[in-house]
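User: Before I run my own analysis I want an independent prediction to cross-check against. Here's the chain; please return only the structure tokens and, at the end, one sentence I can use as a sanity check.
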Amino acid sequence: MLSTPHRPSPAAGTGPADPPQDDAGSREARARAGRRGRLIAGFALCAALLMALHAQIPNGFGQLGSLFETFLPWAGLSVPVLLTCAAVRRSRIAAVAVIAPAVVWGSLFHGVVTGKSSEGGDLIVVTHNVDEANPDPEGTARALARSGAHVLALEELSSKSTPAYERELAEAYPYHSVHLGIGLWSKYPLRRVEPVPIMPWTRAVRATVDTPQGPVAVFAAHLASVRVTPLGFATARRNEAGRNLAEAVRAEQLPRVIVMGDFNGTKEDTALSPLTSQLRSAHSEAGAGFGLTWPASFPLVRIDQILVRGVDPASSWSLPATGSDHLPIAASLRL
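Assistant: Structure tokens:
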């Protein structure tokens, strides 16, 4: 009688392995990662929209539009931060979305990071908020005298420090005029020097400078200070002073106009557009980099400006720090 070999039956629990399947925990982890990637992408698109539409940010309660535009160049920091987050989460969607704020920032500031200066120029002007608390007005004055400027516009002169500037600048600048904290010094004759009533007290002056190329109208101004408060950005007095200065500049009869000083605001700030829209920025046209001026120890914003009409900027630059909390700025202009 034939018998078949005994084959052991499979032990309980053995047999072909089941195909691997994702467990619920890994699926949930991937879902969370996807949600985080979409969140990063959302932040990236919001950053792009805020930069692209900065002029449309309402300036109602808190003057948030002006506050954002004051620090607009720094919005570009959102790009490396968001890109790092996308890399940590390994999210392709987030990484692609970060391209949007990068492109918008580049379109706004691509011309800033490259130098646009050229040789030449007929008139060098310098403006400097010298800081009424400056501990070394004599040293500041000597530094300004070495700048090579033909015309100096100084703001925040105090009654105590003004004699020091007059004394130290007398040899290089035979013509000067000071009106309650605002001063002009010139190598060329000054005439029709008069205060401009942009505020209840003098914070701007206007003068005709008789250059070898003909007369030029020069305005030196110090717009009202601004404050960041718990209720937002306090700019009402500055904005009013800017509108008043804009009216004076609009009424100027001479074809060549220079407006310089401490505006306590950037040229991107749309609240100052009544003034800035009728002038051109020397730094935007002929400078290199952002030219940030305040605070001098670690500049964050460019609130000191040289604006022109009827003349062509050849170059624009910042001067070394003095005893002031602002950096002085200069421009060479073709008349």
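Sanity check: The chain has a mean pLDDT of 90.
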